[in-house]
Each structure stands twice: as structure tokens, then as C-alpha cells.
Amino acid sequence: MFAAVLPSLHFRLADRSDVITLYDIRQAAIRQLSLTHLSECEAAAWAERGGISRVEQAIAKDDVWVAALGLQVVGWLHRAANSVEGLYVSPSAAGQGVGTALVRLAESQIAQRGHHLVVLESSLNAVQFYLRLGYARAGTQRSYAAVAMRKHLEAA
User: Fold this and answer.
1) Which phi-psi region, left, alpha or beta, contains residue 117 (left: φ > 0; alpha: ψ -120 to 50)?
2) Ramachandran region of residue 29, left (φ > 0), alpha (ψ -120 to 50) or beta?
3) For 12, how many CA atoms within 13 A lie in the half-sphere containing its CB?
4) 150 and 110 in contact (C-beta within 8 Å)?
5) Which ranges of 11-156 does DSSP label H, i.e. alpha helix?
6) So what's the pLDDT on residue 4?
7) What is the reported pLDDT for 109?
8) CA–CA distance from 75 to each of 69, 82, 88, 111, 139 (Å)?
9) Distance between CA 25 and CA 4 in Å, rounded?
10) What pLDDT shows up at residue 143?
């Protein structure tokens, strides 16, 4: 998929042993990458919402895909039905195609399950990322920090 850019990037489903690593990536991504649109205090408050139990519940209930470069986990995506519930990339791996690869994987999984629409709520710092991937704003903005977005998938 992105072998030319990230030759050792691979994906797997997360398990309980990944909880702390995924939590740490979420914390770092929010605290560092969202500062384009949030204050440090707002980013810290967002990062703390849900805590470790949020990651544990996602793994237990839905599909959580992990992206790793070699042995190092560098990002993850939480998918439920046709919704991307969360996407987090380690700041050190941001801008290298990890997020794009995870979203494409989720789109493929969603299409394989017979859905033709992907929905998500984007943080303000990620709106341009999703627009580049073909997503569009969906209706009115629900909060000051989240933008509802959607993408129609091509028929397989």
C-alpha cells in the first residue's frame, strides 16, 4: 500500500497487551498535534477524557488496528461499523503516511462489510487531512472542537 514510503509498515488488530502503548500514543498525539487549534490546557483536558478505560473498551468492543514500523507501534485507528471513532499517530511518525494508511485500511474493512458510507468526527487540526482523503463536512459543526465528516465509498 505505502511500501515505497514506509517499507516496514504493517498492521494488526490490537489486543489487551497494547493498551498502555495506544494510550501513550493518544496522549502524545493530542497534546502535541492539536496545538494548532487548541491551547495546551484544552489539549490536556481532551487527552485525559476517557483515560485508559477508553482504549480498553475500544479493543474489547470494536476493531482497533495498530500500525507498526518494524517492532514500534506508531499509530492506531478505532473503527465501529462504518464509523472511524479515533485515529492517533505518534508525533514522531506524523506526516509519513501512517494515518493515511490506517484510514485506507478502515475504508477497506468498512466496504467489505457492505457499507457505502464512512462517518467520523474530526478534530479541528485533522480536518484538512480528511479533506485530502476525499471526506466532506457533513452538516453543521456539532461542537467547537469537532467537525462531522463523511465519505461515500466506491462500490466494490
Assistant:
1) beta
2) alpha
3) 13
4) no
5) 19-33, 40-48, 51-61, 98-112, 127-132
6) 40
7) 95
8) 9, 20, 5, 22, 29
9) 24
10) 61
* Average pLDDT of adjacent 10-residue blocks, the chain of 156 residues: 62 97 89 65 66 93 96 96 95 93 97 95 89 90 77 81
Q: What is the DSSP letter of 4?
A: T
* Residue 42: all three cell numbers together: 484544552
Sign of CA dihedral 118, 44, 53, 23: positive
**What pLDDT is recorded for position 69?**
93
Distance from C-alpha of 16 to C-alpha of 55, rounded to nearest angstrom: 9
Query: What's the rounded Cα separation, in Å, for the pair 25 and 20?
Result: 9
Single pTM value for the model:
0.87
Give me the sign of the Cα torsion angle 57, 73, 147, 42.
positive
Looking at the DSSP bridge assignments, the partners of residue 62 are none
Q: Report helix, strand or coil for 88.
A: strand
Indicate the angle between helix axes 51-61 and 19-33, nearest 10 degrees. 120
